[in-house]
Amino acid sequence: MLGPRITGERVRLEPPNEEMLSTFISWFTDPDITRYLGRIVPPSMPEEREWFEKVCRSDSDLIWAVYLGEKLIGTTGIHGINWKDRRANTGNLIGAKEEWGRGYGSEVVALRTRFAFEQLGLEKLMTEAFAENRASIRALEKAGYRQCGVHRRHIYRHGRWHDMWLAEVLRDEWATPPAEAEPPTGGR
């Protein structure tokens, strides 16, 4: 399925189209972008078209293109939706490297999470990230994801093993913001 248009404060999520596939492939050719992705070999255009057509027909995957103004900067999705148990996996990619570190990933995760709980009626979202990918972990935590485990030495990449950080967010935890910290008491 292609996700509906969702407008945030700075970014918007739009249904992707076939014209974007060459941009997606170009992102997959950049080792800086793929260092924290499961896929290390870029897809061919026929493979990318096949993936896109499959997702368009899917009733358990939902994807968006991420825009900053008129500029395509990434993708996000809700994958493997289990409608009976109301849970799914999530993922993000900010492919425009010049936009890294500006908080767009955090906004994307928040928009996607809100949609999953309020529009799809899901109960739980799950994700994983390379343990050293601090930017992704921060973005996920800002949206309410909590660590629930670690797959140790789970991925072998670039001559070494990497741990995978596992996280989830439950609807009721997301809907109820954490209690505000009590102000400090006493003197200096």
What does this entry show, briefly?
With 188 residues, this protein is an alpha+beta fold.
The biggest beta sheet is recorded as:
8 strands, mixed
- Find the count of extended strands (DSSP E, 2+ residues): 8
| Integer average pLDDT | 91
CATH superfamily: Gcn5-related N-acetyltransferase (GNAT)
Number of helix segments?
A: 6
Structural class: alpha+beta
Order of helices and strands: EEHHHEEEHEHEEH
Fraction of helical residues: 25-40%
CATH first level: Alpha Beta
Beta-strand share of residues: 25-35%
Rounded radius of gyration (Å): 17 Å
Weakly predicted, low-confidence segments = 180-188
The side-by-side strand order for the widest beta sheet comes to 1-2-3-4-5-6-8-7
Q: Which overall shape is indicated by the principal axes computed on the Cα atoms?
A: globular
Q: Identify the CATH architecture.
A: 3-Layer(aba) Sandwich
Say what the CATH topology is: Aminopeptidase
> How many domains would you count in the coordinates?
1
